[in-house]
Amino acid sequence: MDSDDEFMSGLSSQDEDFGGVEESDDGSLGDEFDEDNPDVGFSQDKDIKPGKKAYEVDFKAFSPEDIQSHQDKQIDEVSAILGQSSEATAILLRHLRWNKERLIEAYMERPDSVLETAGLGPESAQAPTTKVVKGFTCEICYDDIPGLETYALKCGHRYCVDCYRQYLAQKIKDEGEAARIQCPTNGCHRIVDAKSLDLLVAAELKSRYQVLLTRTYVDDKENLKWCPAPNCEYAVECGVKKRDLGKIVPTVACACKHRFCFGCTLSDHQPAPCLPVKQWLKKCEDDSETANWISANTKECPKCSSTIEKNGGCNHMTCRKCKHEFCWMCMGLWSEHGTSWYNCNRFEERSGLDGRDAQAKSRQSLERYLHYYNRYANHEQSAKLDKDLYNKTERKMTGLQLTSGMSWIEVQFLDTASQALQTCRQTLKWTYAFAYYLQRNNMTEIFEDNQKDLEMAVENLSEMFEKPTAELAALKVDMMDKTSYCNKRRVILLDYTAQKLKTGEWKFNVDIAMGA
Amino acid sequence: MSALPKRIVKETERLMAEPVPGISAVPHEDNLRYFDVMIHGPSQSPYESGVFKLELFLPDDYPMTPPKIRFLTKIYHPNIDKLGRICLDVLKSNWSPALQIRTILLSIQALLGAPNPDDPLANDVAQRWKEDEQAAIQTAREWTRQYAMA
């Protein structure tokens, strides 16, 4: 119960301050895991008590309205403290990237310089208006007709209203700027505030301006990120910092159900940390197909390691690059072949052994990669197939409801199973990328056992899915069992991996800490 | 073609009436938005006594967007690439409609006098500029002699 309270309080204090949450995180983690161990066998417990696993992070999804009201709330709060208008406060907050504490502190110490650097300067209270100035020439369009309406910000740089309008439209529409539009004068950093903007621009631009402002709010805050799913307008809040990404893989779920990594905004890639994932994706992009072909069809020059395809002719090879002459069969020096030109029976010579050794090594590293890649790709492919299969099954499910008299709710187990398959395959996929970068020690064996268990469970479930629809009704209980087993194995695997990641016990053959 | 905006007419007139020392900009007769530009290399720089040709074009939404400018003469400079494109803040994010052709050309001349290898456009040149400034300056001088002196 204690830990639950802690968990909840962690959530509510999230808006304000993340330092505290991290601590309560670690604290509750320890107890929770001890408590969880004895009742691993009962999945119902999980539903009753939301115990937090090592791979889980706190997060919250926000709608565009939520984001707007957050902004307004913070602006109101700070504006009351600073005694500034809400327009000015908004500019100040945006200027300091929504770091309230820093703003208040800096403002209390030296208000004038804070206002100045934010582009506000000494404030005067009157509402902005356009003016006609006698003998005025606009510095932008050089128009000087009498009666020209003009406008200037508090900095006094005056331009005609038309030019001002065009300028703002250019910034908002074409350059997508909002919070940091400056006075048109070169070198003047005065920010165009919301009131001036209201006065000058057309209604449709105003709404665009609001959208952009909201966007900068999310972009500016380190603990907020847009959901990367297409057409999703939600943002997700999470307290994991960039520097922690070598220790934790912060997978979050948006209100639209899309699961993604808060660190890099790619789709959920637990258990592998962000940096190896990035390297893996790059490697796969560059290598996989080519590597397959190379492995099947070529050998390397024993001297310079250029990749060589033998497309005909005899075994006497001359490397185009380094002019090394060698035998395609034994990879040894050609000169050692004496007069036995066209066949090679010389397997004992040193040079041949060396040549094959070096080649074996590079082949081995390629094979190692392909081992992991094939499994990675297989799960990706299978997940797609499972999904197709499910779509087909869904149609049959409707039929099943009609023929066997099962109700809609009774056939939902297929949906649950399908979802479990998808998430588990996603996890499995990334275990292979993870394993590729892992250095072997005795913990990797436990990891591989976990991986094996999950994989077997998933394949079992997947097989059941392929059964004809008529048999599915009879398999219901079995499938439900398998589904919950899969989910449980996945939790165990992720939890174990995340714990060791947190304590830095995995050793990788690449750098996993994000640069400062 | 639509009538030339007053802004461009005035600017052109002023460029002709009070030219900037070391810089000339002449519009084409058939396209008054297209200028032939010459900039003299600043003294005390590796580009000294070179005359560099540039082309300048004022896009439709000028002066809301910056003019497009490119070096036509080959030049060895960390902020100017093989195609003559220039890396200069006022030509991009720091453009202001209150700036003019005149001020932009002056900025480019100043860039010749003060190369900035920390914000490079031509990476190989910038690299060399940082590693062996003397040699880089020597190359810049040779290029100036070879390409920028008639």
TrEMBL record, chain A:
UniProt-listed Enzyme Commission number(s): 2.3.2.31
Keywords of the record: Metal-binding, Repeat, Transferase, Ubl conjugation pathway, Zinc, Zinc-finger
Zinc-finger is among the record's keywords: yes
SUPFAM superfamilies according to UniProt: RING/U-box
Renumbered residue ranges of the record's region Disordered: 1-49
Catalytic activity annotation: [E2 ubiquitin-conjugating enzyme]-S-ubiquitinyl-L-cysteine + [acceptor protein]-L-lysine = [E2 ubiquitin-conjugating enzyme]-L-cysteine + [acceptor protein]-N(6)-ubiquitinyl-L-lysine
Coiled coil: none
Biased composition regions of type Acidic residues, renumbered to the chain: 14-38
Pfam families: Ariadne, IBR, IBR_1, UBA_ARI1, zf-C3HC4
Keyword match Hydrolase: no
Broad enzyme group: transferase
Matching InterPro entries: Ariadne, ARIH1-like_UBL, E3_UB_ligase_RBR, IBR_dom, TRIAD_supradom, Znf_C3HC4_RING-type, Znf_RING, Znf_RING/FYVE/PHD
Cited PANTHER family: RBR FAMILY RING FINGER AND IBR DOMAIN-CONTAINING
UniProt-recorded name of the protein: RBR-type E3 ubiquitin transferase
Annotated source species: Lepraria finkii
TrEMBL record, chain B:
Keyword Plastid in annotation: no
The UniProt record lists the keyword Transferase: yes
Protein family membership: Belongs to the ubiquitin-conjugating enzyme family.
UniProt source species: Lepraria finkii
Region forming the signal peptide: none
Protein name according to UniProt: UBC core domain-containing protein
Chain segments annotated as transmembrane: none
Keywords, alphabetical: ATP-binding, Nucleotide-binding, Transferase, Ubl conjugation pathway
Record-annotated UBC core domain positions: 3-149
Catalytic site positions: C87
Lineage: Eukaryota, Fungi, Dikarya, Ascomycota, Pezizomycotina
